[in-house]
């Protein structure tokens, strides 16, 4: 049975025969005028061959017909990403997640922008072709599939034989909470800023794209078990001109964060950073070293001052009030490392202790 032009072009594109796909699509331009699938397919083919001007024009034609298609949005986001316009790219990726929560390409692209999205790196990825992993997907290349299917089958048979001989235990990997209910709605994104700035004082005045970015970063950090970094982004939102709806969801996300241990704590802020902007680090966890002084203790409470950085008795970075609800075992004349949460007490920086560590080697 003969394939129509669009199906034929799709087949060619799966085989990465983009020039052939473009040629056959161009020959049917009049027949498929005002056809969304035609415009979208043509734009994607042009994107893969690097003809971004034509790709942009055809994406725009497709957008006039259907604006909520996630493949279209991924294509337009990729164009902005190639140009280094990461703010616009992020907006399109957020739109993708609005219509298709959990879209892996959008999530991976946003993580790339967050961790490596400087202009020089983007240029390198464009040159090497690595940027194509964020393009609209084409499906499995049948040529490559044929080249690997036989080795895969052989390996699978080998594994099955090995399993029968040697039992294999697989550790279960924990997963964090599903945040799909915390994704901002289209309406919340449109009204993401507080309209009446006279209703309160804000430490941070953020643009719509900055609020979006902060909120998205908080979710990504949470899923990567970087709760301190997530808390910082949440605090930035809570102390900004973000709308009440966004702040409510940020507070809900905050409820998912978990207390760390000495072994699991990440992204510990320096004392100097916390002293400079204490509200930004409120409820973050720290493992700070130093010595203690001014101890007040009874059977049910323990308070002292932590002399941060004074473990060698050479320099004090700062002095912070420290409290434990359960009195810890601390030798007052030895250096100590404290695992504690940053809190505010009477408007000043303080710590709520969880646990302590003292080396037996310290004299």
Topology:
Layout: H1 5-14, H2 18-26, H3 36-49, H4 52-65, H5 70-82, H6 86-99, H7 104-116, H8 119-128, H9 142-165, H10 186-190, H11 208-223, H12 227-238, H13 244-254, H14 271-276, E1 285-297, E2 302-308, E3 318-324, E4 336-345, E5 348-357
Parallel strand pairs: 3-5
Antiparallel strand pairs: 1-2, 1-4, 2-3, 4-5
Helix pairs in contact: 1-2, 1-3, 2-3, 3-4, 3-5, 4-5, 5-6, 6-7, 6-11, 11-12, 12-13
Kindly describe this structure.
The N and C termini lie far apart (86 Å). Mean pLDDT is 86; it is low at 145-150 and 161-174. The longest helix has 24 residues, at 142-165. The protein has helices at residues 5-14, 18-26, 36-49, 52-65, 70-82, 86-99, 104-116, 119-128, 142-165, 186-190, 208-223, 227-238, 244-254, 271-276, and strands at residues 285-297, 302-308, 318-324, 336-345, 348-357. By secondary structure, it is of the alpha+beta class. Strand 4 and strand 5 form a beta hairpin. The protein has a five-stranded mixed beta barrel.
- What's the assembly state of these chains? single chain
The mean pLDDT is 86
Class inferred from helices and paired strands: alpha+beta
Strand order in space, largest sheet: 1-2-3-5-4
Largest sheet: 5 strands, mixed, barrel
Based on Cα principal axes, name the global outline. Answer: elongated
Uncertain segments are: 145-150, 161-174
Beta fraction: 5-15%
Distance between the termini: 86 Å
What's the number of helices?
Answer: 14
**Order of secondary-structure elements:** HHHHHHHHHHHHHHEEEEE
Helical content (DSSP H or I, runs of 4+) = 40-55%
């Amino acid at each position: 049975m003969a394939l129509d032009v669009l199906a034929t072009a799709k087949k060619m594109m799966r085989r990465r025969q983009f020039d052939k796909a473009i040629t056959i699509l161009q020959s049917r331009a009049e027949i498929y005028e005002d056809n969304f699938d035609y415009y979208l397919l043509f734009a994607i083919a042009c994107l893969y061959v690097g003809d971004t001007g034509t790709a942009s024009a055809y994406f725009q034609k497709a957008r006039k017909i259907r604006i909520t298609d996630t493949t279209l949005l991924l294509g337009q986001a990729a164009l902005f990403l190639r140009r280094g316009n990461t703010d616009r790219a992020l907006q399109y990726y957020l739109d993708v997640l609005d219509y298709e929560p959990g879209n892996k390409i959008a999530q991976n692209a946003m993580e790339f922008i967050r961790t490596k999205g400087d202009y020089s790196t983007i240029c390198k990825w464009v040159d090497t072709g690595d940027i194509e992993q964020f393009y609209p997907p084409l499906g499995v290349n049948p040529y490559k599939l044929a080249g690997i299917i036989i080795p895969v089958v052989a390996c699978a048979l080998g594994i099955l034989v090995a399993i029968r001989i040697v039992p294999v235990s697989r550790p279960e990997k924990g997963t964090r909470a599903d945040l799909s209910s915390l994704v901002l709605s289209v309406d919340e994104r449109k009204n993401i800023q507080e309209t009446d700035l006279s209703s309160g004082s804000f430490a941070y005045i953020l643009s719509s794209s900055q609020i979006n970015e902060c909120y998205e970063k908080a979710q990504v950090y949470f899923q990567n078990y970087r709760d301190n970094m997530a808390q910082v982004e949440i605090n930035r939102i809570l102390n900004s001109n973000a709308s009440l709806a966004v702040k409510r969801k940020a507070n809900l996300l905050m409820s998912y964060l978990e207390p760390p241990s000495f072994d699991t704590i990440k992204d510990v802020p320096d004392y100097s950073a916390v002293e400079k902007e204490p509200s930004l680090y409120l409820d973050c966890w720290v493992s700070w070293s130093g010595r203690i002084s001014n101890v007040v203790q009874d059977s049910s409470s323990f308070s002292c001052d932590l002399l941060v950085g004074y473990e060698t008795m050479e320099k004090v970075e700062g002095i912070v009030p420290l409290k434990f609800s359960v009195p810890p075992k601390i030798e007052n004349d030895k250096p100590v490392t404290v695992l504690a949460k940053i809190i505010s007490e009477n408007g000043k920086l303080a710590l709520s202790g969880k646990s302590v560590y003292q080396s037996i080697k310290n004299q």
